[in-house]
Amino acid sequence: MKASELSSLLGGILEGADVELSACAGLEEARPGDLSFCKDVRHRALVESTKASAVLLSPEWTEKAPCTVIRVDDPNRACMEAARIFAPAEPKREAGVHPTALVDESVKLGEGVHVGAFTVIEKGAEIGDGAVIEAQVFIGEGCRIGGSTHIYPQVTLREGTVVGRDCIIHCGVRLGGDGYGFNNGRREDGSVFIEKIPQLGVVEIGDGVEIGSNTTIDRARIGRTYIGPMTKIDNLVQIGHNVKVKGYSGLIAQSGIAGSTEIGYGCLIWAQAGVSGHIKIADGVQVGPQAGVPQSLDGTQKYVIGSPAMSMKDLAAITLAPKMIAKLKGEVKAIKSRLEGR
Amino acid sequence: MKASELSSLLGGILEGADVELSACAGLEEARPGDLSFCKDVRHRALVESTKASAVLLSPEWTEKAPCTVIRVDDPNRACMEAARIFAPAEPKREAGVHPTALVDESVKLGEGVHVGAFTVIEKGAEIGDGAVIEAQVFIGEGCRIGGSTHIYPQVTLREGTVVGRDCIIHCGVRLGGDGYGFNNGRREDGSVFIEKIPQLGVVEIGDGVEIGSNTTIDRARIGRTYIGPMTKIDNLVQIGHNVKVKGYSGLIAQSGIAGSTEIGYGCLIWAQAGVSGHIKIADGVQVGPQAGVPQSLDGTQKYVIGSPAMSMKDLAAITLAPKMIAKLKGEVKAIKSRLEGR
Amino acid sequence: MKASELSSLLGGILEGADVELSACAGLEEARPGDLSFCKDVRHRALVESTKASAVLLSPEWTEKAPCTVIRVDDPNRACMEAARIFAPAEPKREAGVHPTALVDESVKLGEGVHVGAFTVIEKGAEIGDGAVIEAQVFIGEGCRIGGSTHIYPQVTLREGTVVGRDCIIHCGVRLGGDGYGFNNGRREDGSVFIEKIPQLGVVEIGDGVEIGSNTTIDRARIGRTYIGPMTKIDNLVQIGHNVKVKGYSGLIAQSGIAGSTEIGYGCLIWAQAGVSGHIKIADGVQVGPQAGVPQSLDGTQKYVIGSPAMSMKDLAAITLAPKMIAKLKGEVKAIKSRLEGR
Question: Which domains are assigned to chain A?
Fold first, then answer.
């Protein structure tokens, strides 16, 4: 898009060459063809060295710029607006079932549902009004998907999975795989056996939940693995069987929740953190990045970190131990010298 | 299902309203429509506050319940039985190749094999008797799958992968991807090069192995990456090239084993643990959650934890260091006062 | 393959039975049917106990072997050559679009492009000359794939993703999923809201990049998430929105880079390491296995380890703290005895 066209869409004033622009980027990351922005005169040096082809500046900015300038009242907001203009158009997923999709005749499809190419929907499933099921998805027997939920390509829902309304399920998510459960032991003759415990339950996802790419949520051993409403799950997260996430929580990338654990309302589990099985995390607790929580947290501590998880203060004390030891060592040495000295 | 019908299936006696029931759940998690259970009178309070529509109780239980009661001899066992009744029916995967599946004419299909919709099986592959290959699976050239093995939707097996009998491979598993191997260096002119090392081997999975959703196992650089019999692998586990897992081991979710490492018989690698490359873990050793093992473990220690991995005792000593330091500090201060005091 | 045939392909001399061989393996891992190798006479015991059916030995080797010997000048090199001979043939992906693939009529396909079965390529996408897009792939609207790039089965590229030339994208990779971004807060009435922040940018992958199985790279909030040339990414790695990896770096399995972070040239992020959001890692820095980097690294330290990340020396000091404390305790006790003794 020409800078002149963009400038008029943003209600700005073009100063300099009418360059071609195709994306937004920060001043440092920008490259030719990019539009950048700067509000604060203190970032003058960044503007001077940017490789952007154009930069959004406010009228107060009187410094020079090495490229085309689009003068606007609020550079931040204008950049957000430009980003919307540059964004790839959201693909239209119109109502209807793609001719290659295999939807069992017993499936109940709501009004305006989209089913993409090569998608398989097995018998007894129900898809709510306005749901979008993209290409190459697998929806097993008896699954129920709520209205307006969007399932991206290559997601699998094993039989009996329930997903609420207004959910977003990203590519490669696996719902309803068997939980990890085995009985081990030795037979009378001394030989070892490992026996699969049947995983008889389901996964149930509440309304307004978003689940990131390649995340896995296992079906319950008995009953349900439950993800409460408005929970937002990032990529590559693992949620074990019979976990209950009450709702309004966030689970950041690569975190894991072991079986039968309960996560309260409004919790935040940071990236790569792990929570052990059969425990409870109280409402509103945050588990820091890479933390490992071996036992229940009753909410006395609002934030834990470290493995095993502890307070920030306790972790800092461990980190500072070598310094404290060095200091003590010096003092002990001084005492010894003093005693020797006599 | 009506409580009366369930009660008679369980050989119990119905007391109270003939409510509709559809799932099992613990007393605390239960909600209307659920069946719960309690054996121990000590959990009286949980029974009183449950939201279950019915609860399984033993004849000894004389307390009141806020809902329908199904009286049975053994509530735990009856609940397991009810769970089996409520469980989503296991989808039937009858013998035959779905008309949309693309099975190369050179593929050898055993007796009673099921091949699902949109599955691709390339030339020279062999599928054993009674194997179930579900929808949207990719099986590359020359793969061999043992009898009675079950492969869930959207699994990929790159060329030459071998899977034993009675295995279960969950959705999104990736077998036989290239191992991570590059030669780096500088050319004579000072420029950097990064060169791919050909990954010429395969993945071989023994009998009775289960592999969880979205787990990845790389093909060997040379020879084979080997997962021995009865090994049970959870979701999102990473196994590098040329790893050898002898057998009868468990690898819990999000753990990772780096290239060329050997895991002995009967090991347990807990969630999010990492084992370095080119080392050996002796038979029966357990690597705790989030532990990081930098060097071989000869079995002297049966359980390690921490990163780098150490004994529980050693990790506890580090955790306790701040307390010990505080104590010592007090003692040193006391000594100093005493010395000053003279 | 017969040992005699292999021997002549390798230019070696066969000594012993003309056994059947099908794979290479180390002396310890080898089993009947395998070819192994040994150069160094010090590994005599391993040769004597190997289960390989044949072993490559140099003329200098005068010891006995328990199996067929193929005498060659350089056993290591001969083994590599044998591995190439035993390797599963690389599947041929000939130019052409599989009849089941759905390629929108607006898509620009270069010369000699291969498109596999059940693959979907949406409108406006461009595929460069000689690219291989295997079976069951999803390529969204307006994606651009460079020449000679190879995309394995069951990869998804959301709309607008750009991939360079000579890239390798392994099974199950997810490019362009929405970044994790939400506004949280309380409304005037005290109720909580969680609002999705539109993710308007794209993912852009430079030339010569390799991405391992089931890795996820999120689209930018605004602008682009950028993976620079020759970067090599392993399996199950998570890369957040607006991350910039300058190039020539390695990201090992299960590592994660949080949003808006910049990774310099020639960095190495080891397995299961995590790098926080909105920071910079200087060129050439290595982040050790399971390390957690909370703040920018300016390159003063070339290697960090631990969570939070620190120098090897600092981590060692923490690990040694209990020993140092025990020593100090002894000294303090001795001082006290001495003082008491008077």
Answer: 3-86 (3.40.1390.10), 96-304 (2.160.10.10)
